[in-house]
Amino acid sequence: MANPIVLKRFEHGDRLYVQAQQIWLILVAFIESSKISGLKGEMPTLYYSELALRMGREEQGAGRFLGRQLGILGHLCIRNELPPINTIVVSKITGMPGDEVVLPENKDIVQAQRAVFKEDWFRIRVPTTGMLRSVWECNDI
């Protein structure tokens, strides 16, 4: 008897909103595992290049090709009154997020990053590709 339910895999060349869903999964796993590791006094961040490798991509200039996908996640978070999950992805050179970062009013990067680590991301359902596509189309990222 054939299995009628087939899982899809993330692939190189997926649409931006599908890549955003993959990034969501990676970031949530990174955040929640960092909490378990108990890094005290240090704000865990993930370099663009590390994120790209976790996505199975090894191209140079990861920050240039991940910006729009991370922007989608930032806008989604702000719309849902969540801290912008994309703030923890930073450049190796500057240690700061790129232009795609989306911040709530009256918050700086460090405040937003702290808020990301206070959130219980495992209680939030994974956004569907349809939701992420809507954010992409509405925000002209």
What does this structure look like?
Helix 1 (16-37) crosses helix 3 and helix 1 packs across helix 5 (129-139). The protein is 48% helix and 3% strand. The chain has five helices and two strands. It has 141 residues and is mainly α. The protein has a two-stranded parallel ribbon. The termini are far apart. It has one domain (16-139).
Strand line-up in the sheet with most strands: 1-2
Proportion of residues in extended strands? under 5%
End-to-end separation: 45 Å
Fraction of helical residues: 40-55%
The largest β sheet comes out as: 2 strands, parallel
Low-confidence segments: none
Principal-axis shape equals globular
Secondary structure category: mainly alpha
Q: What is the C-alpha radius of gyration, as a whole number of Å?
A: 15 Å
List the helices and strands in order. HEHHEHH
Number of strands: 2
Q: Quick check: average pLDDT?
A: 89
Annotation field: number of helices: 5
Total count of domains: 1
Summarize the structure.
The protein has five helices and two strands, in the order αβααβαα. With 141 residues, the chain is mainly α.
Question: What would the keywords be for this entry?
Answer:
2 strands; 141 residues; mainly alpha
Itemize the secondary structure elements and their pairings.
Layout: H1 16-37, E1 46-47, H2 48-54, H3 62-79, E2 89-90, H4 109-118, H5 129-139
Parallel strand pairs: 1-2
Helix pairs in contact: 1-3, 1-5, 3-5
